[in-house]
């Protein structure tokens, strides 16, 4: 049986053999739509192509149009997400090649929310909303998102601490100077139900101060495609108010409130997948055991993932002159997550084969429930000024500012299975779930009592960041773009550990502080007014404890987060070119990149001690084409080739290789729409992810990698009248079976969604 196969047993396309082949495919495909971040959606003219090309980032730290910015930046607009029916950030990021949720989790734990890998590194903690960090392992909905900006390469100067290979910035919707009412109602496979509204109302017109109100809201209730029991239920509201839209001083006030009540997914055993073998000599027959049904759910009816997100943002902008603008943004945000997920014990020792010849009798032990009761709080204030000015013959576009950031993370612990519980009369242990039948698991069980054990963790990080960016136009053909940032951080971490024998809680506390300089510099040559060739260099830094507030004693302490460790360092190079073609309707780009990461913390396989001697490198090629090919035909497509490897330190792979885990060597994505003059629009998309290796934690006998796969999607939309259109989406046209994510040990995986359908009615007034 093929590891990843079509349920129809037919291979649709061969794997990509070279970057050249992928480029030809990419440039022959087309895509969907987008509108400017400064205007609301208007009724589309019948037969007109969608506009997917974005010329400028909404982030003021980028001081030049995208064609003149010496860095790979991809912008995914709302219209493209709407046409594809993308409801989460994870789904939207399918438009960025090589970026995705490929990692299921460590050992018995399971990632929740947007667990993003990008260019070889985990970027889950490098997600921002309007330029401000958004913490919490949650699934972000797209209902209030104008566009998603994927910034690849050096990012330390932009954001301070971040992933070595980039970050993701979500741009939210703002009130505009036009009345409109948009909405949608969707139904689909797996009991999918969703409704959204986007209402904008002008409160005072051009003769007044220019104020407007905007309300975005949604509700969703859907089972996970192809999975039993797993369910996603959430709703949210995002009102915003703006004053002074036609004046030099503008005020914006935004509130976001989202509630999620989900049943999480712990994955499926890899038993039966190619690459699975039994290390137990007495159970060699498991090597040829049948694959379990990919819809099987091994959790329990009691599992839950409850999330509450609250965010308030106040922003003021003042134009001193047409060329000088001051902005100040204040934000308070809180994410609360209460979570319990039951998975299964992956090793063959936890698989009971009562009658080896009768698989129907085989059971697998359920794991200690993963309990998470965590609260992330953020207070931040950003002040920056944008200015255009000349120094002699050199024209400058500058942005400079200061960021004051206070972050908190607090959590509470719970007893695991069969744990002795102290101080609770009449209760001796927290119990355990009964084992699950391997091939027909029953989630409706009892036995585990969820009890807090009194342990807590609390972390705070205070950061002061100063930065400046400038694009200097040296001549008609030469430009220089650079940025410099200084961060001073101070992190305090405290925790209480439980002695399992005495029941005594032992507190501990650690602190670390330091300062970091990061910078980037790019030289841009413009062969024509609408093109550029550039060479860029940038740096980044990640302090001890990273984004998880987990610190441990310095010196001889055996921890990956020792306070005496130095910050992880990043150096990145990029050589690229960007061209606006077809009367600036189509943007094409190509870039060669290299990122070196040093001061990586690695663990000695013999002693188990941690050392800061690791070095990693990611290098490769990225190609993209976005825009309109004709008046009716639009396209967005991208291809990446990545060579990611360990330069120094122990292997991170199960097979001892040096390639970085969860990083496809080749990846491709495309979406294209064609608008017929009769009001009918047709769209088709393709995604390819190459072979990916998993990490290692000493587990043996499990698949060391997942094979490559193609997935195809399609859309048909018909405009009934100026107020209503219908849209029909089909996902995974060929009903391909594939591994979407795999955990570090290789015992568990998340199956890719099977073929599903969705019908949406979009209305606008």
From TrEMBL:
Listed PROSITE patterns: TONB_DEPENDENT_REC_3
Q: Which Pfam families match?
A: Plug, TonB_dep_Rec_b-barrel
User: Sorted alphabetically, which keywords does the UniProt record give?
Assistant: Cell outer membrane, Ion transport, Iron, Iron transport, Membrane, Receptor, Signal, TonB box, Transmembrane, Transmembrane beta strand, Transport
Q: How does it sit in the membrane?
A: Multi-pass membrane protein
Q: Where is the TonB-dependent receptor-like beta-barrel domain?
A: 275-733
Signal peptide annotation: 1-33
Cell compartments where the protein resides = Cell outer membrane
Looking at the record, the residues that make up the TonB-dependent receptor plug domain are 66-166
Q: What is its main location?
A: membrane
Where on the tree of life does the source sit, at the highest rank?
Bacteria
UniProt-listed NCBIfam families:
PRK09840.1 (NF007349), TonB-siderophor (TIGR01783)
Give the UniProt family note. Answer: Belongs to the TonB-dependent receptor family.
Name this polypeptide is given: Catecholate siderophore receptor Fiu
The species is Variovorax ureilyticus
């Amino acid at each position: 049986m093929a590891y990843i196969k079509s349920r129809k047993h037919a291979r649709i396309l061969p794997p990509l053999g070279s970057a050249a082949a992928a480029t030809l495919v990419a440039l022959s495909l087309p895509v969907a739509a987008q509108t400017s971040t400064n205007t609301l959606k208007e009724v589309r003219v019948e037969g007109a192509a969608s506009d997917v090309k974005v010329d400028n980032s909404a982030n003021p730290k980028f001081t030049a149009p995208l064609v003149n910015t010496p860095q790979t930046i991809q912008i995914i607009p709302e219209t493209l997400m709407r046409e594809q029916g993308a409801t989460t950030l994870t789904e939207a990021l399918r438009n960025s090649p090589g970026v995705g949720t490929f990692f299921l989790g460590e050992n018995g734990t399971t990632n929740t929310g947007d667990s993003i890998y990008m260019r070889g590194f985990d970027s889950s903690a490098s997600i921002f909303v309007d330029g401000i960090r958004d913490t919490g392992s949650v699934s972000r909905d797209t209902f209030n998102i104008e566009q998603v900006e994927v910034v690849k390469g050096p990012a330390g100067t932009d954001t301070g601490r971040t992933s070595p290979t980039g970050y993701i910035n979500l741009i939210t919707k703002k009130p505009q100077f036009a009345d409109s009412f948009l909405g949608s109602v969707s139904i689909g496979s797996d009991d999918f139900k969703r409704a959204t509204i986007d209402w904008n109302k002008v409160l005072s017109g051009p003769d007044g101060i220019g104020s407007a109100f905007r309300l975005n809201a949604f509700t969703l209730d859907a089972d996970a495609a192809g999975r039993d029991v797993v369910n996603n239920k959430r709703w949210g509201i995002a009102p915003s108010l703006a004053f002074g839209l036609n004046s030099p001083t503008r005020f914006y006030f935004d509130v976001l409130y989202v509630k999620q009540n989900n049943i999480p997914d712990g994955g499926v055993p890899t038993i039966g997948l190619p690459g699975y073998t039994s290390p137990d000599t007495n159970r060699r027959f498991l090597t040829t055991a049948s694959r379990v049904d990919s819809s099987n759910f091994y959790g329990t009816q009691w599992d839950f993932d409850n999330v509450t997100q609250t965010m308030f943002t106040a922003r003021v902008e003042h134009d001193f002159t047409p060329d000088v603008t001051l902005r100040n943004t204040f934000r308070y945000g809180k994410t609360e997550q209460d979570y319990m997920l039951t998975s299964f014990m992956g090793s063959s020792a936890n698989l009971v084969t009562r009658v080896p010849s009768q698989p129907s009798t085989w059971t697998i032990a359920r794991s200690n429930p993963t309990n998470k009761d965590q609260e992330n709080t953020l207070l931040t204030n950003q002040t920056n000024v944008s200015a255009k000015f000349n120094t002699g013959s050199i024209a400058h576009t500058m942005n400079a500012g200061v960021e004051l950031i206070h972050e908190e993370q607090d959590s509470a612990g719970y007893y695991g299975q069969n744990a002795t519980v102290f101080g609770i009369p009449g209760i001796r242990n927290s119990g355990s779930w009964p084992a699950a039948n391997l091939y027909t698991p029953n989630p409706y069980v009892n036995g585990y009592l969820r009890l807090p054990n009194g342990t807590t963790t609390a972390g705070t990080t205070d950061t002061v960041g100063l930065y400046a960016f400038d694009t200097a136009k040296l001549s008609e053909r030469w430009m220089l773009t650079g940025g410099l940032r200084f961060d001073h951080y101070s992190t305090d971490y405290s925790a209480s550990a439980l002695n399992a024998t005495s029941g005594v809680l032992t507190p501990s506390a650690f602190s670390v502080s330091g300062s970091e300089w990061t910078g980037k510099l790019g030289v841009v040559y413009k062969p024509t007014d609408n093109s550029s060739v550039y060479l860029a260099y940038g740096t980044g830094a990640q302090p001890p404890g990273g984004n998880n507030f987990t610190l441990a004693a310095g010196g001889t302490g055996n921890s990956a987060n020792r306070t005496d460790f130095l910050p992880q360092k990043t150096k990145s190079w990029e050589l690229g070119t960007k061209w606006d073609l077809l009367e600036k309707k189509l943007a094409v780009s190509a870039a060669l990149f290299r990122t070196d990461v040093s001061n990586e913390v690695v663990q000695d396989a013999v002693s188990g001690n941690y050392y800061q001697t690791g070095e990693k490198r990611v290098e490769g090629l990225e190609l993209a084409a976005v825009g309109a090919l004709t008046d009716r035909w639009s396209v967005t497509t991208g291809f990446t080739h990545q060579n990611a490897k360990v330069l120094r330190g122990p292997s991170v792979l199960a097979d001892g290789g040096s390639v970085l885990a969860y990083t496809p060597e080749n990846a491709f994505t495309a979406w294209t729409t064609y608008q017929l003059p009769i009001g009918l629009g047709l769209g088709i998309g393709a995604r390819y992810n190459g072979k990916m290796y998993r990490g290692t934690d000493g587990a043996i006998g499990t698949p060391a990698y997942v094979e490559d796969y193609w997935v195809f999607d399609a859309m048909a939309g018909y405009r009934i009248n100026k107020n209503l259109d219908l849209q029909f989406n089909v996902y995974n046209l060929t009903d391909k079976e594939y591994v979407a994510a795999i955990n570090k040990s290789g015992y568990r995986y998340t199956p890719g969604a099977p073929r599903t359908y969705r019908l949406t009615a979009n209305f606008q007034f």
